[in-house]
Write a structure and sequence with these properties.
seven-stranded mixed beta sheet; about 10% helix; elongated; seven-stranded antiparallel beta sheet; alpha/beta
């Protein structure tokens, strides 16, 4: 695929710079609509609705290897000039919600993003600090800044399996700096199984820092996905990438400071009505919220006229999707009079917080036997 054809699909804002000069300005609401798109299919050459470049699976290595990196339109503010510290905030808008296709748990996604950030901060004085996320759900619609994190990592549907893998906006306010992965693709930390999130994250962060695609030298910022890495701890930048980022921010060493994770726990519980009836369930919460054999007593009577209580039966560490935190699920009901136990289907949906177990699907046998007696679990 001839690389010169890439220039045919630049965005109308034409934010591509082909020399080593950059400005200290930030994108405004009109300029922020230009972004990078990673593409693995040459069939999308004409897809220019929002992309300034495309990334191909091409392994063309015939280009001349001269010292020619490419920087973008803008950079993050560096009041002290090149070589001085730059503080950049980042967050996870919805990247950790468990909805990204593939085999990556939230903890693994975090470590991948942190490795990618550390790679850029190894060669230039960029200090990345994770903060609590704020701002709208990921989309390609401009939004005002309102002191949101500078780089927000998220996902949304772009074009499904294949084609565009991800895109990132150049530094700026609001949408500027945001990185979006396609949740229609399958992701992994192993390029032999699915798309390598680590390589795509390194590439997209490069754009979020102000670099364009490199078309002359071999670089991670080349306009194709290469499957270069081999898993955690194997990410690298090539000399052209290093030259480019140092041209923008100068030489130095930065840092990455993640938020201190509270940790999470999976717990099981039994709720006893006080009249011999009970139900069991399980839930997810931040660590140290519950302890094994902990009792939580009702302060007022339940629908049976008795005061009941929760007993926490077990607590274990949980490292899965953060979208489950505070969700509670009911798994079985027990009738003390008949000594019968009924299990709810696995499709029962969760509610937020222990003490709000409502809206669960239950077996027909349970409904037939109990009727409308037990409102605690919304059995109406």
């Amino acid at each position: 695929m001839p690389f010169e054809k890439i220039d045919n699909i630049v965005s109308v804002q034409n934010l591509i710079s082909t020399n080593s000069q950059t400005t200290g300005g930030l994108l405004n609401s009109n300029q922020a609509s230009s972004l990078d798109a990673i593409n693995i299919s040459s069939s999308l050459l004409g897809h220019s609705s929002y992309s300034s470049d495309l990334l191909y699976t091409s392994t063309n290595t015939s280009q001349n290897h001269k010292d020619e990196f490419s920087v973008g339109y803008s950079k993050w503010s560096q009041p002290g000039g090149k070589g001085t510290s730059v503080d950049i905030t980042y967050s996870y808008s919805n990247l950790l919600d468990g909805e990204l296709k593939g085999d990556l748990l939230a903890t693994k996604i975090r470590s991948i993003v942190e490795e990618a950030l550390k790679l850029w901060s190894k060669y230039t004085p960029l200090n990345f600090k994770e903060v609590k996320d704020s701002g709208p759900a990921p989309s390609d619609n401009y939004y005002s800044d309102n002191n949101n994190p500078q780089i927000r990592f998220g996902h949304h549907y772009i074009d499904g399996n294949g084609g565009v893998l991800a895109h990132a906006y150049y530094p700026g306010s609001g949408l500027g700096g945001d990185v979006h992965f396609d949740n229609g693709d399958s992701w992994s930390d192993n390029p032999s199984t699915n798309i390598d999130l680590l390589e795509v994250a390194v590439h997209e962060i490069g754009h979020a820092l102000g670099l364009n695609h490199e078309s002359s030298n071999e670089a991670v910022m080349n306009s194709y996905y290469g499957g270069r890495f081999k898993g955690a701890g194997t990410a690298f930048l090539l000399q052209d990438d290093i030259n480019g980022i140092r041209d923008v921010y100068g030489s130095g060493i930065g840092s990455v400071t993640p938020l201190t994770s509270p940790g999470y726990q999976y717990y099981t519980f039994t709720y006893s009505y006080g009249n011999g009836d009970s139900y069991t369930g399980y839930g997810y919460a931040e660590s140290n919220k519950y302890t094994t054999n902990q009792y939580i007593y009702d302060t007022s009577s339940n629908e049976t006229g008795y005061k009941g209580n929760y007993q926490i039966n077990s607590v274990t560490n949980y490292t899965g999707a953060t979208s489950l935190i505070n969700q509670v699920y009911v798994s079985s009901y027990y009738d003390g009079d008949s000594s019968k136990k009924y299990y709810t289907p696995a499709s029962g949906s969760g509610s937020s917080g222990l003490g709000s177990e409502y809206g669960y699907l239950v077996s027909n046998n349970f409904n037939t036997y109990f009727g409308s007696k037990y409102y605690e679990a919304d059995i109406l």
